[in-house]
Write a structure and sequence with these properties.
- This protein is mainly beta and 155 residues long.
- 12% of the residues lie in helices and 30% in strands.
- The chain has three helices and 13 strands, in the order E-E-E-E-H-E-E-H-E-E-E-E-E-E-H-E.
- The strands form five sheets. A three-stranded antiparallel sheet has the order 1-5-6.
- A hairpin with a 2-residue loop joins strand 9 and strand 10.
- The longest helix is centred in the middle third of the chain and has 8 residues.
- It is rod-shaped.
- It starts with a strand and ends with a strand.
């Protein structure tokens, strides 16, 4: 199977005089009037399904996605393997399925959501402050002797 690829799904008529077609999903002969063609194979309409949500791929569109030996609909492919953006602290990509912390418009890996000065990690419900778009714990925020406090906000 091809990894990380978008493929088309086609509904094609079964040729009654042609050689018998075997479904790639159930390994049974296809006797229906129409069959699906995808991944260079033939399928019953009910057999070509998303590995996550079990939706019939011939009904939800004309494309499917493959990755890590999974056949997926577009929605589940993006949910599992799509990208949400970059972490504001480490600048690395955050996969769409990963849990994140947010502060204003910034998104962080859970491990990166920490005080910029002392590296103390924050957890859900912890109080933190933003100064110049950097996260600070209360102790470092209070110890900071900045003359301009207009850009600081408690979160």
């Amino acid at each position: 199977m091809v990894f990380d690829k978008e493929e088309s799904v086609s509904l094609v008529p079964l040729q009654s005089k042609g050689k018998p077609r075997i479904c790639a999903g159930c390994n049974q002969r296809i006797r229906d009037r129409f069959m699906l063609q995808a991944l260079d194979k033939y399928w019953h309409e009910d057999c070509l399904k998303c590995a996550c949500c079990d939706c019939r791929l011939g009904k939800v569109g004309t494309t499917l996605f493959t990755r890590a030996n999974l056949i997926l609909c577009r929605r589940d492919y993006l949910r599992l393997f799509g990208m949400t953006g970059n972490c504001a602290a480490c600048s690395k990509v955050i996969p769409a399925f990963e849990m994140v912390m947010r502060a204003r418009d910034n998104v962080y890996h859970l491990d990166c959501f920490a005080c910029h000065l002392c590296s103390q990690r924050f957890y859900m419900g912890d109080k933190f402050f933003l100064k110049n778009n950097k996260i600070l714990c209360q102790q470092d925020y209070e110890g900071c002797h900045s003359k301009s406090n207009s850009d600081m906000e408690a979160q």
